Amino acid sequence: MKIPAYCDVAVIGGGPAGSLAATYLSQAGYHVALFDKERHPRPQVGESLIPDFWKYCDEAKVTEKILADGFVRKAGGTVDWHGTTRQLAFKDYGYTRPAMHVERDRFDHILLEHARTQGVQVHEEVAAGECDFGAPGGARIACRPVGEKGAWAKVDCRIVIDASGQNALVGRQLGLRAMDEAFRFMSVWGYFTNSRYFAADGNVYPASSVMTTPPTTFVSSLPDAGDWGWLWHIMLRDRVSVGLVLPVDAMKSAQRSESSWERYFLQQCYAVPRLAGLLSEARFCEASVRVIRDFSYRSARVAGPGFFLVGDAAGFVDPIFSVGVVLGMYSARAAAWSIDRIFKSPGRTAQHIDLYERQLQGRMEMARALALPQYEITGPVGAEAKNIVRFSDAQAKALMYAASSLTARSQHLQAMVETKGGN
Fold first, then answer.
1. Distances from the Cα of 352 to the Cα of 92, 313, 366, angstroms
2. How many degrees, rounded to 5, is the angle at CA 62 between CA 60 and CA 66?
3. Phi/psi zone of residue 139: left (φ > 0), alpha (ψ -120 to 50 degrees), beta?
4. Tens digits of per-residue pLDDT, 146-198?
5. Of the candidates 89, 110, 120, 103, which has an alpha carbon nearest to the alpha carbon of residue 1?
6. How far apart are CA 297 and CA 178, in angstroms?
7. Residue of 138, 170, 171, 179 whose CA lies nearest to 298
8. Which parts of 61-102 fold into alpha helices (H)?
9. What are phi and psi of 8, to 5 degrees?
10. Which DSSP letter does residue 172 get?
11. Parallel, antiparallel or unpaired: strands 99-102 and 47-49
């Protein structure tokens, strides 16, 4: 497909946030072009999704396609924190629709192909380059097929949505992105086959039961890491995703004594008794280990004249409570709503940018507060996070409190609910 010279909205990135934002705007009647430097399906770490993700799928009219793919249904969470085991079941909080464990390559591909069926011009293996937010029509981006040399095509548009994930193309270009010094973490993950798992009844089941007896996501603290290190165990259809999250300094120091990240990863997995038990009959998937450093960051702004940042391009927080994809979906819906209002009422552009800014920054700060072992509510962003928690419905608030209690972080949520005033 030829790269267009003009579109109403140019979306950079075809992950969940980019595909959904493009879908919502195309369904609203706008000409949307989406550019992704990769071809889907592409490798991505396995993911646990909480039930709130369904409302964004419903609005995009993609729910039936997701159900038809047959992803693993998740019953809740099992947490072993410093030797104390607790469980959480979503049904106990009034949720009637399942959480899911999804292979992100397949999940993301469904969303991207759905965007195409909804009228989005999808351009895979096309990289986005420099963005000009002083262009006459609002914005202009440079695009070029991956692997080609020579001139970049120029695409004029009214607004750019940056959904480029951790590449954060627009955020880096505008100098908005900064590492979150409170979250200097690394993550190492890999895959196994034939792992056992914990179900909602507290019993352990073989991998062969995963489609008939829904698993829970298993989370555990790590030895000698206090409240700062943890691991995940997410059952998928034919394998399990296992990952470690530790402060950068601690992980680098420990890894120096090992010959490779793979060796370090396996040594750590089998050092946790309950995880070792689940993996006792499992087979490690060779060459599956991946490493990401300093993965938590923030953006000074997430919207401005001519641009909106969504999903991980806006910021990324330690994903201990499985909120990452749902937060990205929220940002996609909120950005699409704001852009639609801007196009219909240009005179209120600044107000809609400010509203999006406050709502998304507040939700990211809320996720940050619930993930950090030590946190102090300060400043206007903290006040916005506090308002979001306090005005959440009872069901969502109860689930947040229960989840945070599993890892001794509930005091932050309690402070947000009870503290009066703005700071």
1. 37, 19, 21
2. 145
3. beta
4. 999 989 999 999 999 999 988 899 999 999 988 777 667 788 999 999 999 99
5. 120
6. 6
7. 179
8. 63-69
9. -70, -45
10. H
11. antiparallel
In 3D space, the residue among 157, 167, 124 whose CA is nearest the CA of residue 311 turns out to be 167
pLDDT tens digit string along 15-34? Answer: 999 999 999 999 999 999 99
Report pLDDT for 423: 41
Q: What mean pLDDT comes out for the span 394-416?
A: 66
Q: Which DSSP string corresponds to 160-224?
A: EEE--GGG-HHHHHTT-EEE-GGG-EEEEEEEEES--EEBTTS-EE-GGGTTTS-BEEEEEE-TT
**Would you say the C-alpha torsion 53, 316, 46, 250 has a positive or negative sign?**
negative
Cβ within 8 Å of residue 420, ≥6 positions away = none
Write the secondary structure of 331-377 as one string of H (helix), E (strand) and C (coil). HHHHHHHHHHHHHHCHHHHHHHHHHHHHHHHHHHHHHHHHHCCCCCC
Distance (Å, whole) CA 15 – CA 301? 21
Q: Which two tokens stand for residue 268?
A: 């750590």
Classified as helix, coil or strand, 378 is: coil
Distance, in Å, from the CA atom of 315 to the CA atom of 299, rounded to the nearest integer, reads: 6
What letter would DSSP give residue 199? B
Q: What does the block give as tokens for 386?
A: 């506090």
Amino acid present at 146: V
Q: How far is CA 51 from CA 95, 216, 219, 408, in A?
A: 7, 13, 18, 23
Report yes or no: 53 and 108 within 8 Å, Cβ to Cβ.
no
The pair of three-digit structure tokens given for residue 127, joined into one six-digit string: 């990289």
* The token pair that represents 29 in the structure block: 């009647």
Choose among 103, 27, 117: nearest CA to 66: 103
Say how far apart CA 335 and CA 161 lie, in whole Å: 8
Whether the Cβ atoms of residue 389 and residue 416 lie closer than 8 Å to each other: yes
161 forms beta bridges with 11, 308
- Beta-carbon contacts of 187 under 8 Å, excluding residues fewer than 6 positions away, are 243, 244, 245, 291, 292, 295
